Amino acid sequence: MSDETFSLIGIYGGTFDPVHFGHLRVAEELIEILQLDEIRFVPAGHPRLRNEPIASQHHRKIMLYEAIHDNKKFFLDDRELRRSGESYSVESLRELREEFKGKKVAFCFIIGVDAFLKLPNWYLWRELFELSHLVIVNRPGHISFEHHACLPPKLQEACSDRWTDDVNALKRVSSGFVFTAVTTLLDISSTTIRAYIAAEKSARYLLPDNVLNYIGTHHVYTRENENR
């Protein structure tokens, strides 16, 4: 049996409407906690289980690029914006596995605890375990779980033998583990930022200045329907 380990790549999805320091700080800490080679930010095109984003795909892509382009381990992956129809994480992971075929790479799919608890509602959700490791991060204002027994029954059963707190375990196989990461919780939300901007209140220090400047220049959230 080979002692060669897998390199780890984080996959961080979301609407990023707009991206803010809460997103960026979690990603920065996960680079260190999981010893990731890189994190790919994957903005959703048309999410199936949440409302359509307020900002257009074009604006969300540019805002995300502005926020991450100077970090050598952060990358923008716009595959879901280029895909027609609803956004499915399982399809993105399938594509990534095919693109990295033959390479010793394992993907760590980053998911907030609120979304994780709803995982059985996702499209082909059990296949996620075959394509990646799942990395759960807590989110301010959302329930966290102390005991796995409080999970929905389907999720509890699916994860029963997958839990690990060993980062090295994630490097030994290409998929299948569930890891809970303890990160700094910055109580910032895209919803709050949009509300501040719409009300002409300052959103400074909640998101990068270049993103805030872009929002102001292009009036991204001035009217709720302006950029649909």
Keywords:
228 residues; alpha/beta; seven-stranded parallel β-sheet; 10 helices; 16% strand; disordered C terminus
How do the SSEs run, as a string of H and E? EHEHEHHEHHEHEHEHH
Largest sheet: 7 strands, parallel
What structural class do you assign from the helix and strand content?
A: alpha/beta
Radius of gyration: 18 Å
Q: What portion of residues belong to β-strands?
A: 15-25%
Shape: globular
Count of strand segments: 7
Low-pLDDT residue intervals, each spanning 5 or more residues? 224-228
Helix content percent band: 25-40%
Q: Can you give the mean pLDDT?
A: 91
Number of helices: 10
How many angstroms separate the termini? 53 Å
* Quaternary status: single chain
Major beta sheet, strand line-up = 3-2-1-4-5-7-6
